[in-house]
Amino acid sequence: MAVIIAAKRSAIVPRGGAFAGLEIEEIAAPVIAALLQGFSHRVDEVICANALGAGGNVARIIALAAGLPTVAGLTIDRQCTGGLDAILLARALVDSRAARVVIAGGAESYSRASQRSHGGVEYSQARFVPKGWHDPDMAQAADLIAREAGISRAAQDAYAIESHAKYRVAVGEIVSVAGLARDPAAGRVTAALAARAVPIVGSITAANTALAADGAAFVLVVADDLAAKMACGGLRILRGANVGGDFARPGLAARDAIVAVGGAGADVAPNLAEVMEAYACQAMLCSAGLRAVNVGGGALARGHAIGASGAVLAVRLFYELRLGQGVAAIAGAGGIGAAMVVQKTARLRKNASVERL
């Protein structure tokens, strides 16, 4: 059974910020280098999610930049769910014995997306359902589910303010890239700021929406016998799910994925949950029935580096889960969702202490 034995990420930096001048491999390669520090076994594959089209086989480019020339690299695009999907794919490779060591996660340069096209189409014009079908703007779709569920702007703002207030990182979680080792947007949303935020549509504002961002996050997935030999413990990947939901209400697909893995069912009561906060109303609906959700804040505080965001959830679980089981879940454009259930292994390295910054 596959085990996550290490997890690292870069800071999540709002578009146009400190990472704007970096190539995607310049953001991701330092994360992988830190992930492999002290690890001597051969890496079989690097799986990297990327949603905005960084050009070419991003995983191969990153692998080369990280000093892994024998790794072919596999790039996937499943939009927001991609980072978590990459980890589930790594699990499948390891569990099937097609690989023993896989680096998986995601990397995104939102800043550079405006300089490129996505498959020959400007990203703003990209579509996620067949031509002629209703393909909602994400903010409009979020406002729809908020109205249907009766979630007010005030409630969404309160959730976002709490996410910023809870923000914390673990020692060693963030790898310094371009001299930055802290999520610069965290802690900025206050009641005063939320009150004056201009609506994007309906009850959706910039204050209760995750900021578009640059960043990278990866985990090291190995076979359980290798983890046992190393006596390093970590997170055992118990199961995962990928679902197709209502494309008109894409944000709710994370809830469908949680149900699919039993994360909110009677058979599993996770000690900890990491649920994507693309929009406050979405997170509120998808985390219903879960306990200890986003204890160190969520994407509303950090930002949303699309292809990397699912992997960021896994990194957060790695550092925050002390015992028992945890669940990570995320939704994506087109009405897709992904979820993963992990369990803390018995033999552990001393987990990183948590500091509030």
Task: Give your account of this protein's structure.
Helix 1 crosses helix 2 (58-65) and helix 3 (82-95) packs across helix 12. The protein has a single domain (2-121, 133-344), classed as Thiolase/Chalcone synthase (Peroxisomal Thiolase, Chain A, domain 1, 3-Layer(aba) Sandwich), CATH 3.40.47.10. The protein is globular, with a radius of gyration of 19 Å. It is built from twelve helices and 14 strands. Mean pLDDT is 90; it is low at 117-121 and 348-357. The protein has helices at residues 24-35, 58-65, 82-95, 110-113, 138-149, 153-166, 191-196, 224-230, 253-260, 280-286, 299-302, 306-320; strands at 2-9, 13-14, 45-49, 74-76, 101-108, 169-170, 199-201, 204-205, 213-223, 235-244, 272-275, 325-332, 336-344, 354-355. Helices cover 31% and strands 22% of the residues. The protein starts with a strand and ends with a strand. The strands form three sheets. Strands 1, 2, 3, 4, 5, 9, 10, 11, 12 and 13 form a ten-stranded mixed beta sheet that branches. The chain is an alpha+beta fold and 357 residues long. The longest helix has 15 residues, at 306-320.
